[in-house]
Design a protein that fits this description.
With about 240 residues, this protein is an alpha+beta fold. Helices cover about 20% and strands about 40% of the residues. A six-stranded antiparallel barrel has the order 2-3-7-6-5-8. It has a four-stranded antiparallel β-sheet with strand order 9-10-15-14, with helices on one face. Strands 11-12-13 form a three-stranded antiparallel β-sheet. A hairpin with a 4-residue loop joins strand 14 and strand 15 (about 230-240). The longest helix is centred in the middle third of the chain and has 25 residues, at about 90-115. It is globular. The protein starts with a strand and ends with a strand. The structure holds zinc ion (ZN). Zinc ion (ZN) binds near residues 39, 102, 106 and 208.
Length: about 240
Amino acid sequence: MTDELFLEDSYLKEFDARVVKLGGREVVLDRTAFYPGGGGQPPDKGALGIGSISASVVDVRRVKGEAEPGIVHVLDNPIPDSVRELRGALDWERRSAHMRHHTALHVLSGVIWKNFRAKVTGGQMRADRARMDFSFPGEWTTEVVGEIERLTNQALAEERPVKVYELPREEAMQNPDLIRTQVNLVPERVKMIRIVEIEGLDTQADGGTHVANTSEVGRMEITGHKSKGRQNKRIEFVLR
Ligand SMILES: [Zn+2]
């Protein structure tokens, strides 16, 4: 198992770890700050090394259902099998951009639910843009989209704290916000569910990394919107 340091501290940029498994370009560590991807947030990039040995981390993924589950770091070139300890460093510019876009997506999700009773059906973030899909029953006009942008920027500017904590499964299943955002999809075996709450706006079961306050997100600008069928609507945005 790999201790997932990013769950406790999303601002951790560097860490030391022991090598659990090393094979060619793939390394499993006992602890890592590298996010393995999931929930629309891409895997991190960065570097692993010790002394004169160094390699770029080009991909990260969670390995499940094996005898030794953990987080695998894929390197650009192999490092010697004699290496027992490594220092990791994230590509922080890229990761912090993912965090800002991820929090922006949750704010957007809260805004469209509170104002339009529309539910999120999907989302994806990059370092320079993000998109979100909704089940939106009304007309998808430029005016509505403009109103969503205005309300989202208003919520971001309200400097709302972003809180991360765990709830026992039974308790999470009683919370209306968590029911709406499909907490039931979290696998049965998970007894403590990680919650990301944007104070007074949005509460979701979430495994991703976020900024600590909406003021760190900046301003969002909707760069595109389309209707993908009667219900399904999409917004694309960038952050300024
Ligand atoms: Zn999320």
